[in-house]
Amino acid sequence: MSRVCELTGKSVMSGNNVSHAINKTRRRFLPNLQNVSLPSEKLGKALKFRITASALRSVEHVGGIDAYLLKAKDAQLSSNARRLKKQIAAAS
Predict the structure, then answer these.
(1) What value does the CA radius of gyration of the chain take, rounded to a whole number of Å?
(2) Do 11 and 31 touch, CB atoms closer than 8 A?
(3) Residue spans per domain, the chain
(4) Which of 9, 31, 39, 87 has the smallest count of CB within 10 Å of its CB?
(5) Where does 13-91 sit in CATH, by number?
């Protein structure tokens, strides 16, 4: 399973651990992924996603998963999210 947010496209980044003696070793910054079920008002069911905590805050800020998907660009959404976006657009 890839470590990529299905809504924002946020993924693993790399960088350095820097010690007090300024020794640099490579490390990975992993996204804070959560498995969540978000209720869709237009489809009348819960939608399961694997998204970051920041994406979850964005969804709640916009007003729900329906509004977020309709506003989001297709390039950053996963194939599952794009399919659900089309279903929500057809239902409204």
Answers:
(1) 17
(2) yes
(3) 13-91
(4) 39
(5) 2.30.170.40
